């Protein structure tokens, strides 16, 4: 089978491409399939060339996802699996409405239309976010809670979910939209996500740098590790369409952790000197976005489908510490998610 990964130069995108390139087969819609080629698409050409140079089955597709040349190439390639990760992050989408609409919404519309032109509907994994939800006081909600986003990013992702649902109903794709938790701890350079501090307050102190904390210690976050995010994508690809029962949206499990617990964990694992590198720097704009997100989400349906969360925040920090190494800064626009 052939696989398309959009946003392939982003952090999660690179992980997905590397993981797929290391495998011979993948479970797709309930059937084990041999991987013949991986088409890595992104506007950042350099990282794509690097991946294609390392992995013989990876082919680079540089350029804007909505460009006619890119869409023609995708239609001609006719992938069996589309993993749509390309996105502008939450803070960037809030600051630049047109950019968010172009990348987070229009590219999804164009990609679904490209799938319509294919002889067979591909499995279509759409990367959404818990930012589609809103609540008062950072409350606990369930996966059945009706979405009501309070950010441009969350709104764009919700529209994408509805499009994937309808395109699946029409038989254009075999869709599954994944509402990702906030990913922590991300390596590399900071991005413009409103939740970027969830990685920064761990990553930067461990690297000997000061980190600014824009929110209070009581704020809770629904978190998953980078490794877990990768596993979620692979599990979603393998699900039989019938197992979704007509509902293509999956709110993914995470661990509920307060910022205070995150800082206490850092202090316990790395010591006082490292923990003291986190400096309070209240930011009203950031707080307005992230405090509208749920602090905890119960996800019995997702768990029944085979999605398993991380053990605890200690495991997330230890994972980052074990994998930490100097990395080339990433394009901020390509470091996806909430």
Automatic annotation (TrEMBL):
UniProt GO MF annotations: oxidoreductase activity
Keywords recorded for this protein, A-Z: Carbohydrate metabolism, NADP
Domain (NAD-dependent epimerase/dehydratase): residue spans on this chain: 3-211
Signal peptide range in chain numbering: none
InterPro entries named in the record: DenD (IPR050005), Epimerase_deHydtase (IPR001509), NAD(P)-bd_dom_sf (IPR036291)
SUPFAM superfamilies given in the database record: NAD(P)-binding Rossmann-fold domains (SSF51735)
Record has NADP as a keyword: yes
NCBIfam families in alphabetical order: ErythonDh
Name by which UniProt lists this protein: Nucleoside-diphosphate-sugar epimerase
Organism (species): Roseovarius marisflavi
């Amino acid at each position: 089978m052939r696989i398309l990964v959009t946003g392939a130069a982003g952090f999660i995108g690179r992980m997905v491409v590397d993981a797929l390139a290391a495998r011979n087969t993948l479970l797709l819609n309930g059937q084990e399939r041999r991987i013949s080629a991986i088409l890595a698409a992104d506007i950042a050409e350099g990282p794509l060339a690097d991946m294609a140079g390392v992995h013989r089955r990876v082919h680079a597709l540089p350029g804007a996802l909505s460009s006619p040349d890119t869409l023609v190439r995708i239609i001609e390639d006719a992938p069996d699996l589309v993993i749509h990760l390309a996105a502008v992050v939450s803070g960037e989408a809030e600051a630049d409405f047109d950019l968010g609409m172009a990348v987070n919404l229009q590219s999804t519309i164009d990609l679904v239309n490209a799938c319509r032109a294919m002889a067979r509907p591909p499995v279509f994994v759409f990367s959404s976010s818990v930012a589609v939800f809103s609540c008062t006081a950072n409350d606990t909600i369930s996966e059945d809670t009706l979405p009501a986003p309070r950010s441009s990013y969350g709104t764009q992702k919700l529209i994408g979910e509805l499009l994937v649902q309808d395109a699946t109903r029409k038989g254009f794709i075999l869709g599954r939209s994944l509402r990702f938790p906030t990913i922590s701890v991300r390596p590399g350079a900071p991005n413009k996500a409103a939740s970027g501090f969830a990685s920064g307050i761990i990553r930067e102190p461990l690297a000997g740098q000061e980190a600014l904390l824009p929110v209070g210690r009581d704020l809770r976050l629904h978190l998953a590790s980078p490794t877990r995010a990768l596993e979620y994508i692979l599990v979603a690809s393998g699900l039989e369409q019938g197992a979704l029962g007509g509902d293509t949206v999956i709110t993914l499990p995470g661990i509920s952790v307060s910022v205070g617990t995150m800082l206490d964990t850092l202090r316990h694992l790395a010591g006082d000197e490292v923990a003291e590198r986190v400096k309070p720097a209240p930011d009203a704009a950031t707080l307005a976005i992230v405090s509208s997100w749920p602090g905890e989400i119960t996800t019995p349906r997702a768990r029944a489908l085979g999605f398993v969360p991380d053990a605890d925040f200690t495991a997330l920090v230890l994972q980052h510490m074990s994998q930490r190494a100097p990395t080339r800064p990433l394009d901020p626009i390509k470091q996806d998610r909430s």
